[in-house]
């Protein structure tokens, strides 16, 4: 027979398990309801012409955010086209501040075949809707009109004709898909391109040697290495330029040479020829006299008359001929007379 202490302990365990199970169940219910189980709800109404796809579990959203759900779907008794069905919406009270009085609702769906829901579009009025109020209904625009449907059918026929041409091989794409000629030509083109690429990159070709050998790399890197070596020498103070950059003696030497060159220029500018206008005028007169003499020679009879020039040229030719004959046969001009 169980002791009284064991019975008390068993009752305590059963109580603890029941409390924990109730807490877990409460948390699950709270999470399944989206955390809105304990929030205060209010009722608003919406009149629609047709309730197809709507039920008492249809969600209500404001700009895509869940704020409640539909709790009642029934006939309104009205003869107006857009007020045939009355929907009772159970909305969180704190969400009423996000629904102005001029807001409108329409029936939407998650994708082409998704579940229906009521989508409330926020208005611009400063006043908010009150509990028990009514939201206006906005019908969705017609997705498919007669003109759009005809254009869609025309496009489908065009696509069907294109696919038929491809299937029967009447186009180049069809010949490539159905026949072998286009495929073989394309395959040969790729094979030739691959062969040409392999030949171009082979070690025996110039491009291949350029890519595979180190010669081209050395041609590019050697000048860079030499230039870097020269910069290193200059930085280390080697050579005239390096010493000029690192030592003050070379710098002062170049500075002294520059100062001497500047002094020479200053002395040259101080000469009378550059400093006095009289020297400049004297040189000008000398040059003008020389120009006049050249003009006089140019206008002389010797240069203006071709006859004098021809006589001089003939005399020069005769002299040249005589000298040539004298060199060839001097005896011809040496005549001795004996008495």
User: What is the average of the pLDDT values?
Assistant: 76
User: What shape does the CA trace take?
Assistant: elongated
- H/E element order: HEEEEEEEHHHHHHHHHHH
How many discrete structural domains?
5
β-strand percent reads 5-15%
Work out the helix count: 12
Largest sheet: 7 strands, mixed, barrel
Rg calc: 57 Å
Query: Based on helices, strands and strand pairing, what is the structural class?
Result: alpha/beta
State the separation between the terminal residues, measured CA to CA.
198 Å
Helix content: 55-70%
DSSP E strands, number: 7
Assembly category: single chain
Unreliable stretches (pLDDT < 50, length at least 5) are none
Query: Order of strands across the biggest sheet?
Result: 1-4-3-2-6-5-7
Summarize the structure in words.
β2 and β3 form a beta hairpin. It is elongated and about 170 Å long. It has helices at 4-32, 146-168, 172-178, 181-200, 206-212, 215-235, 239-246, 248-270, 272-275, 277-298, 301-304, 306-328, and strands at 41-48, 59-62, 65-75, 85-92, 104-109, 116-121, 134-137. The longest helix has 29 residues, at 4-32. The model has no long low-confidence stretch (mean pLDDT 76). The chain has 339 residues and is of the alpha/beta class. The chain has 12 helices and 7 strands. It has a 7-stranded mixed beta barrel. 56% of the residues lie in helices and 14% in strands. The chain has 5 domains: 1-38; 40-137; 147-196, no CATH class; 214-265, no CATH class; 271-330, no CATH class.
Structural descriptors:
7 strands, 5 domains, about 350 residues, alpha/beta, elongated, seven-stranded mixed barrel, about 55% helix, single chain
């Amino acid at each position: 027979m169980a002791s009284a202490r064991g019975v008390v302990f068993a009752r305590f365990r059963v109580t603890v398990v029941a409390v924990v199970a109730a807490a877990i169940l409460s948390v699950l219910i709270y999470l399944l309801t989206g955390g809105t189980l304990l929030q205060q709800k209010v009722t608003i109404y919406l009149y629609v012409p047709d309730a197809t796809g709507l039920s008492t579990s249809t969600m209500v959203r404001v700009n895509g955010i869940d704020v409640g759900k539909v709790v009642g779907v029934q006939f309104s008794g009205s003869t107006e086209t857009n007020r045939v069905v009355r929907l009772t919406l159970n909305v969180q009270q704190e969400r009423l501040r996000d629904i102005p009085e001029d807001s409108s609702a329409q029936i939407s769906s998650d994708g082409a075949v998704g579940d229906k829901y009521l989508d409330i579009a926020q208005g611009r009025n400063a006043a908010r809707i009150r509990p028990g109020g009514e939201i206006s209904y906005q019908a969705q625009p017609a997705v498919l009109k007669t003109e759009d449907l005809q254009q869609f059918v025309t496009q489908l026929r065009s696509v069907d004709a294109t696919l038929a041409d491809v299937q029967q091989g009447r186009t180049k794409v069809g010949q490539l898909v159905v026949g072998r000629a286009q495929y073989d030509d394309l395959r040969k083109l790729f094979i030739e391109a691959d062969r040409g690429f392999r030949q171009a990159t082979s070690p025996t070709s110039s491009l291949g040697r350029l890519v595979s050998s180190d010669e081209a790399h050395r041609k590019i890197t050697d000048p860079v290495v030499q230039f870097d070596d020269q910069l290193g020498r200059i930085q280390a103070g080697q050579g005239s330029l390096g010493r000029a950059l690192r030592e003050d003696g070379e710098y002062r030497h170049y500075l002294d040479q520059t100062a001497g060159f500047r002094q020479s220029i200053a002395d040259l500018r101080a000469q009378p020829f550059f400093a006095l206008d009289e020297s400049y005028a004297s040189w000008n007169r000398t040059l003008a006299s020389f120009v006049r003499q050249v003009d006089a020679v140019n206008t002389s009879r010797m240069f203006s008359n071709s006859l004098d020039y021809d006589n001089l040229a003939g005399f020069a030719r005769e002299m040249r001929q005589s000298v040539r004959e004298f060199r060839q046969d001097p005896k011809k001009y040496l005549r001795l007379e004996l008495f």
